[in-house]
Known about the structure:
By secondary structure, the chain is α+β, with helices and mostly antiparallel strands. The protein has helices at 5-22, 73-81; strands spanning 26-29, 32-37, 40-45, 53-56, 62-69, 91-100, 105-112, 119-122. The protein has a single domain, classed as Trna Endonuclease, Chain: A, domain 1.
Amino acid sequence: MRKGTSQKGTKYExxxxxxxxxxxxxxxxxxxxxxxxxxxxINIGEDILGADIIAKKKGRRTVWIQVTTGYQLxxxxxxxxxxxxxxxxxxxxxxxxxxEGEASLKWKTYELSSETNEFKGxxxxxxxxxxxxxxxxxx
Length: 139
């Protein structure tokens, strides 16, 4: 049976959240609720200010994370930016794309730039510490 994108997205969110926990962050994750609509079951999650995951560590900025499958950067960035409550001094906004290819899974991370107020691609693999050695097909 083929997994739906919601199921995959939850798997990737759990993977990212667990990596932040390994880095000693306190993590809050949006929980999915299964609902029946028009004869079909779907997962509904209530994001918090556009984020799936909120990670906090003493002395560090709060990290607001949106994890998504595919190429939905603009849509996810717009969801974050519609809330006018972000302060670069206290908050980090990150969108992580989990893009499945035929043979592998690619992670792309984007962080809100304090200079331009736009999401810029970053090579901060610290978000997922063992990303290069981890067999992503088994997450």
